[in-house]
Write a structure and sequence with these properties.
12 strands; alpha+beta; single chain; 10-stranded antiparallel beta sheet; 247 residues
């Protein structure tokens, strides 16, 4: 069951306000009652909600160059250094390929929402036509930050880039297009920008009442950052140790 939500946060990943704006380009906003009851989730829902295996994922990502020119440019290194979906998974990034034409009627999206407890969602459009002060605001979205919860984005149309920090602190650029759904883990340093197409329509999901406040870097002593470091950098250390043992 869907309930309209009247008090909504501001515009985008990295926005700090909790108050709605008259120019906030939301399409719709909903809470979903009765979710996050994992004991009652069917086997079929569990199957549908599984992230796409890394070996099947077509999500594109690459290591970024050091140029400070237009953030909307691809910023690939020369030669291009591709980052595999398997490496993104090691960093904690999950992904799915869904059917954006179906939107709320997509049974896989419904299963993901049910299994992962996403009880809130809204749909947002960002472009020069829908967002006052567009050029300035997309620069503000590009500030490196983390959140105290997962960040979930499902691209319905258009495209954009999520940049995430690798274990060595270099930037990885993830190219998100229509049908791509990604989850960035709590405590991961990241940022967002549109690409040169200057348009994205995306669904944002959240567990419970959304808290969009970004915590700009540095946040090394923050519990969410420590949680991320303990879970994913330890896992990377274990993988490295195992590789050394094999050789």
């Amino acid at each position: 069951q869907m309930l309209p939500l009247h008090h909504v946060p501001s515009v985008c990943a990295g926005a700090s306000s909790h108050e709605p704006s008259a120019r906030t380009p939301f399409v719709n906003r909903y809470y979903f009652k009765g979710l996050h009851q994992s004991a009652m989730v069917s086997d079929e829902a569990q199957r549908l909600a599984q992230p796409q295996p890394a070996g099947e994922s077509q999500l594109l990502a690459w290591r970024m160059d050091d140029s400070s020119e237009d953030q909307r440019a691809p910023h690939r290194r020369d030669p291009n250094e591709v980052v595999s979906p398997a490496h993104l998974r090691e960093l904690g990034v999950l992904s799915w390929k869904l059917n954006p034409a179906a939107e709320l009627e997509d049974p896989q999206l419904q299963a993901i929402r049910e299994v992962r407890g996403y009880s809130y969602q809204d749909i947002i459009e960002v472009s020069p036509q829908t967002l006052t002060g567009y050029d300035q605001k997309i620069k503000s979205f590009f500030e490196e930050h983390l959140h105290t919860d997962e960040e979930i984005r499902y691209v319905l149309a258009g495209s954009g880039y999520f940049d995430v920090r690798d274990f060595d602190d270099s930037w990885i650029r993830i190219d998100c297009r229509a049908g791509d759904m990604i989850v960035l883990p709590e405590g991961m340093y990241h940022r967002f920008t549109l690409d040169e197409g200057n348009y994205i329509k995306a669904m944002r999901l959240f567990v419970g009442v959304p808290v969009w406040t970004p915590l700009n870097r540095p946040q090394e002593g923050h519990p969410s950052r420590e949680k991320y470091a303990a879970e994913f950098t330890k896992a990377q250390g274990d993988l490295s140790s195992a590789a050394v043992a094999v050789h």
